[in-house]
Structure formats: structure tokens, C-alpha cells
Fold each of these.
Amino acid sequence: MSFIASATPEVTDAVIKQNLEQFLVVLSVSLGVATLSRLVSWFRQIPYTLLLVIVGLGLAFVNVRLVNLSPELILEIFLPPLLFEAAWNMRWRDLRENLLPVSIFAIFGVVISVVGIASSVSWLTGLPIPIALLLGASLSATDPVSVVALFRELGASKRLTVVMEGESLFNDGVAVVAYLLLVGIPLGMEEFTLPTTIARFGVFVGIGIAVGCLVGFGISYLTQRFDYALVEQSLTLVSAYGTYLIVEELGGSGVIGVVTVGLILGNFGSRIGMNPRTRLIVTEFWEFLAFFVNSIVFLLIGDQINFGSLGGNIGLILTAIAAVLVTRLLVIFGLGSISNWLGNQDLNWRELTVLWWGGLRGGVSIALALSVPAVLDGRQEIIDAVFGVVLFTLLVQGLTTQLFLEKLDLIGDQPQRQQYSECLARRTALRRVLKYLEELDPSPDVDPEFYRYQQSLVKQELASVDEKQEALQQANPQLRSLDLEQLREQLLDIEADTYAEYIRAGRLNRNLSPVLQSVLDDATRKEIRPDTAVGS
């Protein structure tokens, strides 16, 4: 007994040391790939996350295993920061404008995907329906990390980016809930009945939203009491992991909980409880964390591939790939047509095509597949099919999405818009500096000529920025609309920040709904109607 007691610390130290070494190797490989993708121009054509998968595949091919990937590792450690970062940066204003297609794709799209994939695979391969349903649930979660990054880099429309990212945010939660509802059926623990399933779904989602709101609004009002960036940054980290664990413990959907708290803190809490500098610090922290986690997840996805097992189930994998593509096609074009009919913003066929082809599968699908109980006979078939589909979507669809954007003429003028936005920001900053110098009460200890000299330098730089802005306008006339867009955004931000100021000062006890956006929208519609009438 004493021997065991004395040996346990040594064993524990050895395990900790081995885990740290594995972590360091994974991190070094990930950062090496990131560095290589920036130094070698050819590699820049491949999305960074896909490059990591390719490197992981290479390591798996030569039988070099970096670390054992468990589903708990993804679901409990990797998933919360990825979901929170996406929700934190998702502007509620943009999401609300596209909430109809996002909701339809995320809820009804997952149901159709599960049923469509399961029925197709079961009919064509003979896989038992309960196992096929678990496969369908695992493959119904989209993970377009690299596609959304590509959209932003190439300047695809904001609506396309918001719909793609919003659908992914919410359908991850719905897919996980669907999996949890179905996993007990093949084990004989539960029977499928529609009323019971709908009720359990409501409980899963309801608990997630309730806890997410409680934590999100609680931390939002807590951060009003102090102004300390590091503490507020730490609170967002605690809220992401804490919400996930609490919701899961209560029997709800941790994914829905994290998305809810991220949306609240990003759109409400960061305004009423954080100053602009703190918001920037927190945003940069989550950008780093998302980059860090994505680097590890996508590298390990490739590293965990078992080529021998995949080869033995090639027929099932090809069938699953075809089922995923056909089902996704029906979901996007079918539900997209319904969304266009119900809503006032149309997604055209070119955008729907990219949404169809860009529906990649990734870490969540693999985590769900690995979570299938080991006692089920079809567990290995589910894992192989999911890995095969994930590889196809990442390496084939992911690498050809840019071609789709180019051929469908959906690539925007993002580089020029970025340059123009930088000019607008510099002009605003320099004008504020100049105004400060003009209104500054000169110190008697400083030569007045020094103030005039500083003003002349600022004016020269301001003139240079104005010339660059004018040159960009002449070369790209469509950029002039960016001034109006940024002015509109600034007006809306001023209104929201004013309400936040009143709440921080204790002069309001709740946040007011913004009214300026509806006023501006009504004014825009009134301006359009006379033109239409004259034209007719």
C-alpha cells in the first residue's frame, strides 16, 4: 500500500510531463504550418485550416500520432471558445436582418439532413436505421471556419457571410441535441415518439437559452461596477466554459448556452460594461484563442485518420458523401426558396449555390461520431463514414469554394474597401488631433512656434490621406457608398453607446430598444418610392 502511495506521484508527474510534451509538439507543428503559410506565397492559396488537415494527414500516413483525440476534449475544451468567439463577433443587427434564413436552415435544415442522410444510407448500404440516424445527426452540423475566412478575405457579401456563419452557430447546437435524442434508441433505452422528442428538444434548447441569458446579463451588469480590462477579459473566458458545463450538468444544450451568452456579451455586455479599449482587448484575446484552438483541432482531425479502416468502408463513405451533398442541396434550395418567399431579402441562386457547396463538416461531426457508445455494433462504420465525409468536404469542397465564388461572380472589392476604410479612419483620427491642437491652451513653457509646426505636420499628412482617398474613389466609384454606410453605422453606434452611458451612470435600469435603425430604414424606403414612381 505504501508502495502505491509513493509511486502515484511519480506516475502522475510522468503523465503530466508526457501530456505537456505532446501539447508542445502539437503547438509547434501548428505554428510551423501557420508561419509557412505566411512565408511561402503558394501556400497562401490554401486556407490555413485546410493546410493543417493536410499536414495531419501526412503525419497519419507515416503513422506519427501526436495525441489521442477524445470527444470530450473537443466538446468540453475546444468547442466553447470557438462558439463564443464566433458569437461575440456576430453583430445582432446583422443577425436580426438575416434571422429568418438562419433559423430555417439551422432548425428545419438539421431535421431534413438527419432524416435524408439516414434514409439514403440505410437504403443503399443496409445500415440499420438507428445507426444511420446517429450518422445523420453527426453529419448534420456544418463547420465552415475556413469558408467564412475565405468569404471575408475575398470580399463576399456581408449577407452571405452572416447567413453561413449564423447557420453554423445554431445548427451545431441543434445537431448535438438531435444526436443526444437519438443515441438512446439503438441501445434500447428509449423509443422514438414525436411528442416526446419535441418536448425533450424544447427542454434542451430552453435550458441552454435560459442559463445563457442568466450568465450573459449577469456578467454584463457586473462589469458595470468596475473598469479593469484583465478581469473583464477573464470573466468572458469563465462565462464561455462555465455556461457550457452548467448547462450540460442541468441536462440542456451547452452549445446553445455558449452561443446565447456570447451574443449577449458581444452585443450588450460589451457596450454597457466595457469601455472601447477594453472591448478591443477582449476581442483580440478571443481572436488569438480561436486561432490557437482551430490550429490544434484541424491538425488533430487529420492526425487521427485510420487509412486502413477507411479503405474497408469505402462504399459506405462514398454513399454518405453523395447523401450529404444531395440532402444539403435540397435543404439550401428548398428552404432558401421558402425563406425568400416569407422574407423581404432574397438569396439569389448564386448565393444559394455557394451556401450549398460551402457546407463543410469538421470538429463537431467528428466529436459526435467518437461519442457513439462502444457497445454499438455500427460504431466503427459511423466513425469511418464521418471521417471520410469530413475529409471530402475539407479537401474537395473547401479547396474549390474560391473557384465557385469566382465563377459565380461573388468576389467583392474587399482589398479596395479595406484601403478606403483605413483612409476614412486615418482622416477622422488626424482631424481630431488637429482639432485638439487648435483648441489646446498653449503652455507658457512651450514655444508657440512648436504648436504651429505640429499643426503643419498634421495638415500635411491629412492632405496626403485626402489625396489617397480621392484616388481610390476615382479608380473605384462604388467605394463612395462606403462613406454613407459608415456614417449610418456610426449613427447607430452613437445611439447604442448613449443608452449604455445612461445605464452605467444609473440613470436607466434597462437597455432601450434602438429606434434610429427603423427611422433610417423608413427614410430610405421613402426616398426609393418617388424614384420608382418617376421611372414608371
Amino acid sequence: MKKTMLLLVCASSTLLAQDIASLRGSISRGQRRANALIIRNSAAQQRSAQGLQTQTANGDEALYPDRRGSFGKSLVYFDTGLVDNNAFNQMVNAIKTQNPTFFDAITMGTSPVERRLVSPQASFAYNLDGADGWIHSMPAAPTLASAETAGEMVELYWSALLRDVAFNDFDTDSIAASAIEDLNRLSDFKGPKEGGVVTAGTLLRGNTTGDLIGPFVSQFLYQPVPYGPGPNYDGSGTLSIAYQAQVVPTSNVINDFVFTFTDWLPIQRGENPDKSIEFDTTTRIFIRNPRDLGDYVHQDTPMQPYVNATMILLGYGSDALDKNNPYISNPTQEAFATYGMPDILYMVVVASEIALRTAWYQKWVVHRRARPEYVGFLTNQQKSGAQDFGLHSDLIRSTALDSTFNIFSTYFLPQAYPEGSPTHPAYPAGHATVAGACTTILKAFFNEAFEIPSPVEPDPSNSGLIAYSGTPLLIGNELNKLASNIALGRDMAGVHYRSDGTEGILLGEKVAIALLQDEAFTRNIPFNGYSLTKFDGTTITVGARQSVPMLK
């Protein structure tokens, strides 16, 4: 048996070139185990054949001895606001050596430690579903002194000032008008435009086609979620369906934090905040403004929006399924454990976890980009004349800073969360990488051209939802919009930059495509593959059942 297994492993490098001799009839448990090994090796060989792309950081860590462009939150910070290089080097050495004991010995900013580093060793976890996270590459993050980072920061300052302005009012609000004017003066702003300029219809939106069609918020964050039998029996022989309304807590209090040096420094050192968000405990409302969206992505679990979207999509019936689903026209079988509801949910959840591990490799091992709240400190110092940190003039001369100072009396970036950003690096955003992965899975399983029934939008008073009757909203576009809403909602809270979100979404897409490819090895029913539209607008076919010969 050992000799047979060895031959199988050695033969796996040529399996993809062979014609399928799929398993037919009954097999023994031992043969099944051998086939499982073939499948694992075949998937690994396919991934290995792709090769590794060069992965580089933006060079800021080496450029600045004071680590002004690098992440170090919860480490030791001096009263100057700069990180202790000894503590920073301990962290980097632990990452480079992958030695667990070195992580335990990092000098932290509080004793006892209050806020710990978030899962840096997740960077080294392997994935046995899909591709290992290290195989995927992404562009280097924009440099600290670049015009792009300046543009991102200007957008973040305006996002903070617009937190309580309804998306529905961006075309009439005076703050939104000032934001649009300021963003259009930037020399390198990567946000979406219409006719080459930022407009009320593009302000704070994502970069996909779907983002610019219809309401700001995706239907998958507005429509009620069906969650099984309801509590009332209607006498018709079936149970009613229970629907969960998608509403969030709200507040009549302005909840902005960490905009003075006195508050900022303890938070940077990793102290727990002494303030909290004050919610109205009696009222919940649909997502209507940047603060609501920021609150949603503050407490959500990684896969929550996409599990909800799955349930909504399944409620649309079989016409909403991907046309290549092999069970749609099958004369004797229907989808369930494969290509059906449990399979879709499984793929969404697995994709979210692989995406996080992939993002964590990029965050900790490669980029270690400073969070916007730290660049807000640098901005305050440079704008006030305390110290020139070399930030681009597009930021320092922006009207966003003047408007922020008029309200907060500082040039710090106001945070929507009392603890500020999480204690892991900025680039890419974990939420964004999960969003890209999970929405790509859903675009594979469902018909992107299917028109969403009974779409809704905020009413003119932003107090309720009414029927939407504009340009038809399609599944593919609204899934793209969902990914952007979740990714850029973190920007609106002040904890990420636009590029963290847009590049994170694209990284997550790579995760999902690799997972779909590898899952194809495990299926039995003939399948021509999913047709899906990538975020760049190109259409691909992925997940066709691979040719893997089995033992009989």
C-alpha cells in the first residue's frame, strides 16, 4: 500500500494533463482515501504551476528612521508621539523569525497590557482550502508623502465631517458641496468620477460600475433577511417565513473621538478608551449616513453581510441562480449539499476565513502601513507648524483641514470609534478582503444579470424606505456595491484609507477564484464552470470540474 500511495503522489504532477477517468461504481474506503490524496495533490500542483509574483512594500519603513509611515499601535510611544524603535524592532524581528516566543516578548505600551496586537501570527497560518494566502500579491501601498495618500486623507477628513449627513442629501448639503470642490482640486484622487470630476453621485462611493447605479447603500443591506419558519402558522399547510429587518442603532449625540493629543496618545499606546458611543436604546433605523455604515462595520462578524445576502438571494428563487448550475436542468436531481444552499454558505464562510489569513500576511509581513489616525497626528503637527513630516501639500493646503479645525479646534482626524483603529496594520483592510472574496463567491453561484425585485431607497426625510423606481438594480452590481459599502464603511469611521479597501477587495477576489478552482476537484456531477464578472469588468469562467483520474 505504501508503494501505491507513493506512486500516486509522484504521478500528481501530470494529472492535469490526463483525460478524466472519473470514478464509477463502488469503491473501498482505502481507495477513497487514495483518491482524496490525488485531489489534494492535483489542486496543489495547479496552484504551484501559477508561480509566485514579486511582493514588495512601499519603502516607507526603511525611508523613515522614526517609523512615521509604519504601524506600531499599542507599542511604546514617547511623549513626542513617535514610536519607540526598540519596541518596533522587536515586533518586526518576531515577524521575520516567526518565533512565537519573540512575539510574547514585545515591549507593549501599557503594563499590564490593555490592547494587544491582533493575531500577527495568523500571517503564518496555512490554507488547505483554495490557495495558500502567501501566493497572492498586491500593489505596494501608497507612500506616506505621496499625492495619493494626501488625497485619501482629504477624503477621510471630509468623511468625518459628513458622518451625520444622509447619503440621500449629498446633492443638496453644503458640507458635501465643499467636499466635492476640495476633492476636485486634488492632483491624485482615486475615487470614482463622472465626466472626470467628483460629483454628488460619486462622493464617497466605491469604484465599481455597480457603485454608481441607484441608492448609495446596496439592496443587500436594505432588504429584509429570510431566516426560516416564522412564529405564526397561517393555516395554509406551511409555516410563514421569518424576516429580519436590517436596521442599526442610532443616536442623537455626536459620537466623535480621538481628536486631541491628550486623547490620542493613550489610545496610540494601547490604552482602553475611557469614552463610549452613546446610542439611543429605543430606536433602530436603516443605514442612512456614513456614521450608520461605520457603526455597522464596527460590530459585524466577518461573514455576516454575505450570509445575509445569501439568504436574500436564495429567496429570489431558481431564476436567480447562475445559469451554469448543473442541477438547474437536471431531470432527476436537485442541488443541496453541492451547488445548493449549504454549499453556498460553506463557500462564503470558508472564503471569509481564507481572506482574513491572506490579508493578515499582507498586513503584518509585507506592508505594516500606519493607520489614518496616526497620519492625522502627523498632519496636525505639520499643519500647526510644530514639525514638518513631509506630507504632501495637497493635504496640508486642503480646505478639509480648515473645516475640521473650525469644529474640533485641532487637525487630528476624528474617529468614529472611541478606541480608534484596531491594533493591526492598515493595508489591506480585512473587511475589504473578506468582502471581495465573499461577493465573488456569490457572483459565481448567482445570476448577476437577474433584476432585484422590489428594490427600496430612503424616503426624502430619511426616516424610512420607499420603493425605488430608477435604473434596474442587478444582482452583480448590487453585490459589487455591497463589497464597497462594507470596505469603505471602515473609511467613514476613520480607520482605513480608500486604497486599503479597493485593493483589499481585489485581493479577496483572487482568494475566491482560487477557492472555486480547487473546489472543482472535489465534485462529481459534470460542470462547465461558473461565469462571473470580476471587479474590473472582465468576465471569466471558473470552477469547471477538473480532469483528475481516480483509483477504481
